[in-house]
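Example S7 (structure tokens).
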């Protein structure tokens, strides 16, 4: 799958914003009067962080860095 530069930047921005939103929501104190938390905010933050790393690597590859080559010793 090939994503263009604007699509990669938009996806990276969404992932970073989603990560910060999920971390903020996960850090809120529990309010028992509202019932249990139904959305796993910590898991969402981990997934968004992982996707952000993937998009950063893709952005580096679009910039000309070859992430697939290992250095030969």
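Recovered sequence:
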């Amino acid at each position: 799958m090939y994503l263009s530069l604007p699509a990669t930047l938009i996806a990276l921005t969404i992932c970073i914003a989603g990560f910060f939103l999920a971390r903020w929501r996960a850090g809120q104190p529990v309010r028992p009067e509202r019932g249990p938390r139904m959305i796993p905010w910590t898991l969402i933050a981990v997934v968004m962080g992982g996707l952000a790393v993937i998009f950063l690597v893709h952005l580096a590859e679009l910039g000309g860095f070859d992430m697939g080559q290992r250095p030969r010793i």
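Notes on this example. Residues 5-29+38-62 form one domain.
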